[in-house]
Amino acid sequence: MAITKEKKKEIISKLKNIFDDAKTIVFVNFHGLGVGDTTAIRKELRKNGISYFVAKKTLIGLVLKDKKMGSENTVFDGELGIVYGDDNIAPAREVYRFSKKHNDKLKILGGVFEKKFVNGEQMIELAQIPDMLALRGQFANVINSPIQRFVIALNQIAQNRWSEIIKT
């Protein structure tokens, strides 16, 4: 269905605001994603403070070119949606998590990270970074590990001494 010039201007204005305000933008191909799945992902993303917007590729391309974020050969295949938010990693992580749950019906094509265009592989690498809670847990485990080994060694020494005392 054709879009009027006024509607295109409105969409371009919204896209420019998104590109200005969002810390991270993920470009996704949603080919094969049903209405129920689309509703589910929108609901899940909203819970995490992330938004999902679908626009024509040509309009997104115009904004990318205007913002000098993409190159001339930035081409996206299939249907194109953008997922964006204020967190640096959360939009990519949530899309990646959803795509794994739903047999890759939603594919990461690339994105904008720190106001620079990145390809799909780089965006997937960003998506695989654990959230802050998991990173804190891993850090605590790393800090705790030497102490834990020290306590185990002390316990072993104490058991050896105790067994020597019992023998005598």
Keywords for this entry:
Alpha-Beta Plaits; alpha+beta; single chain; 168 residues; 2 domains; 6 helices
TL;DR of this structure?
The chain has about 170 residues and is an alpha+beta fold. About 55% of the residues lie in helices and about 15% in strands.
Q: What do you see in this structure?
A:
With 168 residues, the chain is an alpha+beta fold. The protein has 2 domains: 5-127, Alpha-Beta Plaits; 133-168. It is built from 6 helices and 5 strands; from the N terminus they run H-E-H-E-H-E-H-E-E-H-H. It has helices at 5-21, 35-47, 57-66, 90-101, 120-127, 132-167, and strands spanning 24-29, 50-54, 81-85, 107-113, 116-119. The N and C termini lie far apart (94 Å). The model has no long low-confidence stretch (mean pLDDT 84).
What is the percent of helical residues?
55-70%
How is the CATH topology of the largest domain named?
Alpha-Beta Plaits
Low-confidence runs? none
State the major sheet: 5 strands, antiparallel
* Named CATH architecture of the largest domain: 2-Layer Sandwich
User: Rg, please?
Assistant: 24 Å
N-C termini distance: 94 Å
Number of strands: 5
- CATH homologous superfamily classification of the largest domain: Ribosomal protein L10, N-terminal RNA-binding domain
Tally of discrete structural domains:
2
Calculate the mean pLDDT score and round it: 84
CATH class call of the largest domain: Alpha Beta
Largest beta sheet: what is the strand line-up?
A: 2-3-1-4-5
Count of separate DSSP helical elements = 6
Sketch the topology as an H/E string, one letter per element: HEHEHEHEEHH
Structural category: alpha+beta
Choose one word for the global shape.
elongated
The percent range for strand residues is 15-25%
